[in-house]
Design brief:
Blueprint lengths: L19 H17 L26 E5 L5 E3 L2 E3 L1 H14 L4 E6 L5 H13 L4 E5 L6
Parallel strand pairs: 1-4, 4-5
Antiparallel strand pairs: 1-2, 2-3
Length: 138
């Protein structure tokens, strides 16, 4: 704290900063934070029953569908003709009804080819489709 003990008649500027108001404000903010922090959780606390451990469900890998710059279609790394693509998807869906696909399409491929692939995926009844892209700047 800065106190002036003598009044010599001059208008001298105090060279010290009074930090008491700053400390007061910080303490009030700290108390407010401490009081409100427990209220931010909205979970209902319950005592869970004890059971035997079970294995987690098996996670299935998605099948990668790729379209290269020349318009060739690949399932995983196997090239397949666009005409046979829909039938192959139907066969795979029959084997696994919960099938999921990841679609990779080259930036230079014509839009029509990608549209045909996506239409074949839709006609085959597969609803789990992710279209993969690269982030900007990579």
């Amino acid at each position: 704290m800065a106190f002036k003990t003598q009044d010599d008649g001059g208008d001298d500027v105090m060279g010290e900063i009074n930090v008491t108001p700053l400390v007061d404000v910080m303490l009030v903010l700290l108390v407010v934070f401490i009081v409100t922090a427990p209220l931010l959780t909205q979970a209902v606390h319950v005592n869970l029953p004890k059971t035997a451990e079970t294995a987690p469900p098996e996670e299935k890998e998605a099948i990668y569908i790729s379209v290269d710059a020349k318009g060739k279609v690949f399932i995983e790394k196997n090239e397949i003709a666009l005409e046979a693509f829909e039938q192959e998807l139907l066969n795979r869906k029959a084997a696994d009804p919960e099938i999921a696909l990841n679609l990779n399409a080259d930036d230079a491929v014509q839009y029509g080819t990608v549209a045909k692939v996506m239409a074949a995926i839709e006609r085959s009844g597969i609803s789990k489709l992710s279209v993969l892209t690269a982030p900007k700047g990579s």
